[in-house]
Amino acid sequence: MTDQPEKMPLTSMDIAAEKRDALKQLFPEVFAEDRIDFDQLKRVLGDWVEPGKERFGLTWPGKAECMRIIQSPSIATLKPVREESVNFDETENVFIEGDNLEVLKLLQKAYFGKVKMIYIDPPYNTGGEFIYPDKYAETLDTYLAYTGQIDDEGRKFSTNTDAGGRYHSNWLSMMYPRLYLARGLLREDGVIFLTIDDNEAANLKMVLDQVFGEENFVTSIAWHKRVSPANDAKWFSSDHDTIFVYARNKEVWRPNRLERTENQLQYYKNPDNDPRGPWNSATYTCNKSKEERPNLYYPIRNPNTGEEVWPKTTAVWKYGSDETERLVADNRLYWGADGTSSSPRVKLFLSDMGGVVPRSIWPSDEVGHTQAATSELREIFDGEQTFDTPKPTKLIKRMIEISTSEPGDIVLDFFAGSASTAHAVMDFNNETGKSVRFVMVQLPEKCASPAVAESYETISAIGRERVRRSGSRLNTTAKTDAGSSDETDFGFRAFSLSQSNFRLWSGAAEDISKELDLHVQNVDPSATPEDIVYELLLKAGFPLTTKVKAQVMAGKTVYSVEDGSLLICLDKEITPALIDALADADPLQVICLDEGFKGNDQLKANAVQTFKARAASRETEIVFRTV
Fold this sequence. Notes:
Blueprint: E1 6-7, H1 15-26, E2 31-32, E3 35-36, H2 38-44, H3 63-71, E4 76-80, E5 94-97, H4 100-111, E6 115-120, E7 130-131, H5 140-146, E8 159-160, H6 167-185, E9 186-196, H7 201-212, E10 217-224, E11 240-247, H8 262-265, E12 279-283, E13 300-301, E14 308-309, H9 321-329, E15 333-334, E16 345-349, H10 350-353, E17 361-362, H11 364-367, H12 370-380, H13 393-403, E18 410-413, H14 420-432, E19 437-442, H15 450-453, H16 459-475, E20 493-499, H17 512-520, H18 529-539, E21 548-553, E22 556-561, E23 566-569, H19 576-584, E24 589-592, H20 601-618, E25 623-626
Parallel strand pairs: 1-25, 5-19, 5-20, 6-9, 6-18, 10-17, 18-19, 23-24, 24-25
Antiparallel strand pairs: 2-3, 4-20, 7-8, 9-11, 10-11, 12-16, 13-14, 15-16, 21-22, 22-23
Helix pairs in contact: 3-6, 4-6, 6-7, 13-14, 14-16, 19-20
């Protein structure tokens, strides 16, 4: 029958198809028989590149394969883990344990264009070993075996070292697909910060230029990470790291101004007791000559001496005579402590100045350093050294302060490590009364230290525990002037990457009858209803923090997602009464198990017609899917 419900896709968003559809909307003339005529695309764009012509750009062995990795949809899911969570039903924060490449694919549909800020601190590729789960042999099954979810002894992710001969290439192949997928998650006014050292800074900059566009490069920040020199260094003590900043759209994104520090406020005084309060002064000349700006070459009368003062012919006044008259009338020109200066300065009142523009050098006394970060983490874990390379929360709070502005802004960190970013978000909210949300992603990499592994087997376990402990500590702090710790979200929903709750047709079974059985009864018997609901809502495009409520309709349990926008029924006996009840609830989407219809195509067709009739009477479409 043609009058059948849609089949619910169980893979992540098809990145390549989305790109093709977008290209077809912009340039329909470059498609022939639904294939792209790339020569025609070049002509439409006003460009022509001869075949084989050398081009400027970064390439490496394995770069082409990166696009295959990106375009391969994920068939995994994210399972809720309530026992690892804090305040699961109310929190708006998320901590995901899993390979971040798979997770970024799964987040595409629900979080596409919704993340305000990304901060990542990827492996620095110093020649030491780090996990590199991107080779084609390293599939989801490899991850499941690595994490003990399936029995396959000895299978593990490969690692990268300088002894391999391709460690630059491997590192770039690891970074490129993740950055490509991360860009899609950013809002149009979003921004990404990346910390890196000199080993890969130049290569990373070129990759970022390719992924985000050279035109969206904002700046590179020098973070003073070390307070005392490394005297054992062969050449120079490495005292800073680089922080690259790229906007999703530089024409749209603007950094927030920063509050002035105590040191900056010291420059504002009030020597003449001006009723408008403290002020600083700036020179009244510019770097233009009399010949370049003749209209800015004129005399100003000193009101204290009556003398006419002229600027230098090589450095005329900053403003025209009309503006000068206004400033004189408003008592905004300052002639020195005794009033006899040979050149005025203009008053800049603190009350008019607003915040300070962010600068590209971040001193350790303002944003913290590595030693402070280590001490901070040790204090949280009662003196235990659980993680070697944490970043200071002050550093990440500076990024959050610059980048977020609205309630519910999302901060993503998919190399979460010890979860410094989650800690920083909660601390920032506690201090300001704002409600920034976090999404953390961390591979459950085994802890190298046997002493640490006794308490925390994986780095992701350390991260979750840090969020729990830091949130509990912040929750007991005194209320601030800006907000209340009682109102801050110190919880998080924990999820883990796992195989789909639905057994997908592999197409490779020797016994086709078994595959047909899977097609009819395709739900993993070990999956809980909550596991299935969260897989379906994520793949239907709803965030992981969406509120879910179980309710009874026509004697069946139905899960209401986002106040009934999506209704999910997992019952294995669909009835006409249930279909009527679902339609009467006026949802936008309905998902049922295909198994619930028990092969009754007529019942499916009736359900489709019922939803169409209800939608027509309300002039709203109801999307009906089965899985």
